Amino acid sequence: MILIIGGNSQGKLQFAQEMLQIENEMISDGGTCQLEEAFEKPLLNNLHLLISRLKQQGLDPYSFIEQGIENKPEITIICDELGLGVVPIDREERELQELTGRLLCDLARRAAQVYRVHCSIPVKIKG
Amino acid sequence: MLILVTGGVASGKSELAENLAVSLNKGKMLYIATMQAEDEESRLRVHKHRKMREGKKFETMEAPYGLSAYGQEYFTGYDTALLECLSNLIANEMFLAGKSGPETIEEVITACKKLNRGIEKLIIVSGTILGGLKPYDAFTEEYIRVLGRLNCLIGAQADVVLETVCGIPIIHKGKDLVRRELA
Questions:
Q1: Domain range for residue A109?
Q2: Which residues of chain A lie closer than 8 angstroms to B12, CB-CB?
């Protein structure tokens, strides 16, 4: 598994597409895809939106994502670093920020490579 | 040696800072806790952090604000100290103690100097807020400015500046001083 993180609109998706040499139809969008199809394509974009949707539906994001990676160990995952923002006043949003951060720590531990994209520049921070 | 550990929310900075303190320490260790636990959520957080520290042999001192008023003797006799964390301390100084931005900066810098004088290895954990589009209220805007300013002031004086990203340490300054400990 390859993990690509960074702030929003930093060029993460473009970097991933160039690195993997894949077209748009090979990408799942965590914000809009069918939940069961999230881990079926080589690239999963917007993991933070998927986490939010899973949480809203009362599903456990940890086990859902773990299962997904087990089924597709070669997947590349893109996620926004929500933890770079202000701690939200709203409790739900606050939990989502915390959950996404902890999940990313877990995923980074398991990933073969981790890239952080900043102003379009990818920096490999693991692997 | 002064070490600044920054990182976003839930980016693994506390765990990294604690492990770094344990591996650098050659004497007694002090843990300065700044969270004032007034509601269930904060109490849970404090409990989680205490659990994480168990067995690491820290002596804990609770100081939600006003750290500069403590006598130098409080910070003497320790080899290593961990201040956890600056983001909380700043919020407490501004919100609980009612200090202005500039007063908070002065208070925190005075406290850090005092700590740094008495303690061989001082590790300061702080947050990073890299903005966002939402217009915040004046208080939050000022808080973000003070946090950024203090991170810059401390970072400039620090021997080591680290940032944690998803649990991975990025060394911005002083690589040689912590390379072995982070390996």
A1: 2-126
A2: 101, 105
